[in-house]
Amino acid sequence: MLGRRFHEIVRDTVGEKNFLLAGELTYDLEQQYYTLSYFRILAGHIPLDRYDEPFVPMMIAVTGFDDREMISEALRCRYILSYEPFNFKGNLSDFPATLSYGAKMDTFRRKYQDYVWNAQFRDNQDAAVIVSGKPFNDFSTFLRTDGKRAVVIVNPNRTVIVAAVALNRSSGNLQWASPEHQELHPFTRSVTVPGRSAVVVMEQ
Fold first, then answer.
1. Which of 35, 45, 84, 186 would staple 41 via disulfide (CB 3.0–4.6 Å)?
2. Model pTM?
């Protein structure tokens, strides 16, 4: 396998810690030989690879001029952002709206990295989210090593939603924050998620 040969060359020359070996659209068996997996996603994306490999670095393309939805999806699925204005032919200054939201998201993820980066991705397990009386699926949960969890709720629509969140066996001490409101706020039974944005509910 070509990936294995590349991996052996890196290991035996510069060393694995000194070289980033990335593959595009790597399959699960190939991933063992690559440091990072790169791919593009569309609406309705199912994060099967992330569920299979909770901590492997995975990068997605962000190409839109106001690509909030893709950046929020990166939060939900623990993906790294690859800014690609004009599909690798532009400059970061070409999409200031995308870059602005991305910068807020990066700051947010650093601030709460124990909840949304260093924690295990669990997809829709451990929680239920209800919007307008119906199950809502645009969310994921993360599990920290100490057992505390976070629920990442993404609203891809332009209209505001009110999301009721229930965690299995919750301690009841929950707070929420978002990329645009990064301080912790008390959470009771539901939280308002603005259009084209995201909110994270965290166990304290």
1. 45
2. 0.92
